[in-house]
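This section describes the prediction task in plain terms. A model, or a person checking by hand, is given the sequence of a single protein chain and must write out its three-dimensional structure as a string of tokens. No templates, partner chains or ligands are provided. The sample shown here is typical of the held-out split.
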Amino acid sequence: MCPGIPGRVIDIRDEADVRMATVDFGGVRRDACPEYTPEAGVGDYVIIHVGFAITQVNEAEAQRILAVLRAMGGVEDELGEPLP
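The expected answer:
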């Protein structure tokens, strides 16, 4: 099973008519497609699954999910440091 990982949207841009975003996971930044979350903007938290933002969450929920994932262990390379 691949869990969805919460991250904060850093920027949103258009690449070849596809909406793309840079998402921060505590210092680890990845590109993701936010087409499924058109309401998400810079500074919002989204759940990323296989390179797509699949839903928007509030900061408290993002922190709760990250705490659970960190407690499972072995995810440091993907999650980075706790979000500020």
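For orientation: The chain is about 20% helix and 40% strand.
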